[in-house]
Amino acid sequence: MGERSKSKGWCGWFLVLVVAAVVAVAVVLFIRKKSDNSDKAAPVPGPPGAIDEKYSDALKLAMQFFDVQKSGELEDNKISWRGNSALQDGSEAKLDLSKGMYDAGDHIKFGFPMAFTATVLSWAILEYGDQMDAVDQLEPAKDSLKWITDYLINAHPSENVLYIQVGDPKADHKCWERPEDMKEKRPLTQVNTSAPGTEVAAETAAAMASASLVFKTSDSSYSDTLLKHAKQLFNFADKYRGSYSVSIPEVQTFYNSTGYEDELLWAASWLYHATGDYSYLKYTVQNGKAFANWGSPTWFSWDNKLAGTQVLLSRVTLFGAKGVSNSDNSGLQMYRKTAEAVMCGLLPKSPTATTSRTDSGLIWVSEWNALQHPVASAFLAVLYSDYMLSSRTAKLSCDGDSYKPSDLRKFAISQVNYVLGENPMQTSYLVGYRDKYPKYVHHRGASIPADATTGCTDGFKWFNSKNPNPNVAVGALVGGPFLNESFVDSRNNSMQGEPTTYNGAFIVGLLSGLVTTSSVVQSFT
After folding, report:
1. HEC profile of 111-144
2. In which residue ranges of the chain is pLDDT below 50?
3. Could you read off the pLDDT of 170-208 as tens digits, one per residue?
4. Cα–Cα distances in Å, from 258 out to 244, 245, 269, 290, 488?
5. Contact by Cβ (8 Å): 93, 188
6. What's the confidence (pLDDT) of residue 236?
7. How far apart are the first and last CA of the chain?
8. Residue 68: left (phi > 0), alpha (psi -120 to 50), or beta?
9. At what angle do helices 405-419 and 501-514 cross, to 10 degrees?
10. pLDDT at site 23
11. Residues 6 or more apart from 152 whose CB is under 8 A from it?
């Protein structure tokens, strides 16, 4: 009887302890949840912290793709299978257009996406230059940027003339040869007052303005030159409005523009940041209602700059700008609200989350160059997350639900990790990263041995070869998977297997934002 009584007493105390433990856990979870949903902003990050080696390795590879794509007389060439090429580009107009970068796996210099590559790369350097520097990638980024802007300066010989293409795409695509062996004619295409090209002129203005900020302290004379060209190009773009797809119908086959309004806003935004001239900011507000598609999220890409403009202009309201009138501030708030709508669409658990995703969660919008949109979106998400942290903005409201900067960063990490191999194919879509990556990249230079000499058509034996590419297009971000997450590694599959320089700029920006943590600057100047 006494033993049974002791047993009952022990059981009673045990139950009391269990209940107390459950209550304690519940209280901790409640406090944690309340803390997570509080309006208290997270601490502002300090200088660059610990390096994420995975992203560091990937960034160092991605940066090299710009070297793979360089045209002209190469300096300090780091790609063993590349050499000098296109040295006579521009000679028919007595211009030196030998520099710049080949667009993708072919040998055309398309000015529209090349300028966009420069703008995005400039943006990445301005936001994350300290993080690039922490892994010794800032100088390579600036060198690659200058390789493009040197070309763009020469492509703008007078105020209202801009050369926007070197080479004949149709003729080029009938050849399969190394760029070093090209002997075909390289005709020039220009926009001017009688054949305007507002979107390409404005994008080039954006590239020049943003790059002027990059070189402002290290080379003030070069920065001034870039800014002069940027102002002239913006005036040309705005005064002589017209789409280059209309003026030059041939461009529709490759880089057809769906409109120039977004580029005008994008260029004006960068010119405001580069000059501090309030008239450029006012331009974005006055033309916002007509051009900005306020309230409607869009996808950031070489053709549509609205989402990028909305995030960039959010800087003004998040960090504050002197002398902004109440009426202009209301317009700027519309840019920020639309940027937040873009962010809410990206967050997978948001009530307004986009359904444009694969089953594994990758943003998926187009079967051609599918990875452009998820990587571009992730880059914007990291930027906006860091804007929130650095401005002590605690949360983002999505149709009544609240999200933190860390939620945006988590989304961005999910996209880049997919690219780097956490996907159903278990392959890295960044060439050279880890062991399994595309070996048959649609890229002329990579597919032909460096010691081979080929003409226009006999190089197709390398195109048709069943062997992997003899050269690695290191750092190339290929087009990526289909919606069902399959990928066919074939040289003939340009839809999935062709890399582009603007994809390269996006992945460099994204990896630079994730390689470590630090606060973003409140002003670029």
Report:
1. HHHHHHHHHHHHHHHHHHHHHHHHCCCHHHHHHH
2. 1-9, 11, 14, 16, 18-19, 22-23, 25-36
3. 999 999 999 999 999 999 999 999 999 999 999 999 999
4. 10, 8, 20, 15, 29
5. yes
6. 98
7. 85
8. alpha
9. 130
10. 45
11. 100, 111, 114, 115, 118, 204, 207, 208, 229
Q: What angle do CA 416, 421, 425 make, to 5 degrees?
A: 125
Residue 77: phi, psi to the nearest 5? -65, 120
- The neighbour count for residue 122, using CB atoms within 10 Å, is 31
400: left (phi over 0), alpha (psi -120 to 50) or beta: left
| CA distance linking residue 146 with residue 138, whole number of Å | 12
**What does the pLDDT read at residue 427?**
98
Contact assessment for residue 419 and residue 429, using Cβ atoms and an 8 Å cutoff:
yes
DSSP code at position 85: B
SS3 402: strand
pTM of this prediction?
0.93
Question: Catalytic positions, please?
Answer: 106, 442, 489, 498
Within 8 A by CB and 6+ apart from 509, the residues are 120, 121, 123, 124, 127, 128, 379
Percent of the chain scored above 90 by pLDDT? Answer: 87
Residue 517 burial by CB count (10 A; 0-12/13-18/19+): exposed, middle or buried?
middle
SS3 string, 290-343, reads HHCCCCCCCCCCCCCCHHHHHHHHHHHHHHCCCCCCHHHHHHHHHHHHHHHHHH
> Which of these, 153, 80, 83, lies nearest to 114 by C-alpha position?
153
Q: Looking up tokens 């937040």, which residue turns up? A: 340
Say which DSSP state 249 is in: G
CA dist 173 and 53 (Å) reads 39
* pLDDT value at residue 8: 42
Contact (CB, 8 A) for 62 and 69: no
Burial pattern 418-456, b for ≥16 Cβ within 10 A else e, equals bbbbebeeebbbbbbbeeebbebbbbbbbbbeeeeebeb
CB of 510 closer than 8 Å to CB of 130? no
Look up residue 91 and give its DSSP letter: G
Find the angle CA(502)-CA(503)-CA(509) to the nearest 5 degrees. 90
Give residue for tokens 């022990």: 10
